[in-house]
Amino acid sequence: MTDVTASNPGLPSQPYRSALVSGRKALRFNFAPDDAARRQIAAALDLIDLPEFSFKGELTPLGRADVMLRADLAALVIQPCSVTLAPVRSRVADVTQRRYAYDYAQPDADELEIPEDDTEALPEIIDIAAVAIEALALALPLYPRARGAEFAEAAFAAPGVEPLRSADLKPFAGLAALADKLKKPDEPAAE
After folding, report:
1. What angle, 0 to 180 degrees and rounded to 10, lies between the N-to-C axes of helices 128-139 and 35-44?
2. In the prediction, which pLDDT does 75 show?
3. pLDDT tens sequence across 155-179
4. SS3 for 106?
5. In whole angstroms, what separates CA 39 from the centre of its chain?
6. Chain centroid to CA 51: how far?
7. Are 33 and 5 in contact (CB under 8 A)?
8. What is the pLDDT of residue 35?
9. Could you tell me the CA-to-CA distances from 100 to 22, 166, 174 in Å, in that order?
10. Distance in Å from the first CA to the final CA of the chain
11. pLDDT cut 70: percent of the chain above it
12. What local confidence, expressed as pLDDT, does residue 182 receive?
């Protein structure tokens, strides 16, 4: 998991003691940062702006000591276009589920594999804001693109060498022209 809040200590926090949840009833939460906090989050995530952001859900007891977090993320983000750097508005919606296990054991390096679910050791404090910011970071569009923005072909080569172009990398691109050259004069051309 990416921990955006560890490298940005000024980000908002909304802590809950896990002891308030484990073995008891569900605890509802709503993380809806104000304008200043959204600006801090936008700066930490390299966004142009974060006009809307909410993370609503609940911490539910699971068994005697485990805790399940389930929350709905909704945000309006403005990111730079990956081609032109023009502002791109996107709506982001995602569901986050995370299980905190009291008796969680970190697997050995030999046994390490991608887990089926998001299970972590139960911390003393669950920071809902940190989970929300991490969930937003993971849900952001990777390569936002403004309308009409397209990559142009770039060709680079050393002086005196003809640059390699995209068409040169397509092995079957010249086959139709070659087939036309090989046809007898009385046969129709390939289409």
Report:
1. 50
2. 97
3. 667 788 877 766 666 667 667 767 7
4. coil
5. 19
6. 18
7. no
8. 96
9. 10, 49, 58
10. 52
11. 73
12. 80
The first and second tokens of residue 101, run together, are 């296990």
Assigned token pair, 127 = 């920071």
User: Which pair of structure tokens corresponds to residue 46?
Assistant: 């390299």
Contacts of 27 (CB under 8 A, 6+ apart): 16, 20, 21, 58, 59, 60
Render pLDDT for 105-161 as a digit per residue (tens, 0 to 9). Answer: 666 666 555 555 678 888 899 999 999 999 999 999 998 888 777 766 666 677 888
> Would residue 16 be called left, alpha or beta, if left means φ above 0 and alpha means ψ between -120 and 50 degrees?
beta
Q: Which of 118, 63, 72, 71 is nearest to 92 (CA)?
A: 72
pLDDT at 112 (0 to 100): 57
Q: Give me the numbers of helices (H) and strands (E) for the chain, helices first please.
A: 4, 7
Cα–Cα distance, 116 to 107 (Å, whole number): 14
Residue 163: which of 155, 175, 171 has the closest Cα?
Answer: 155
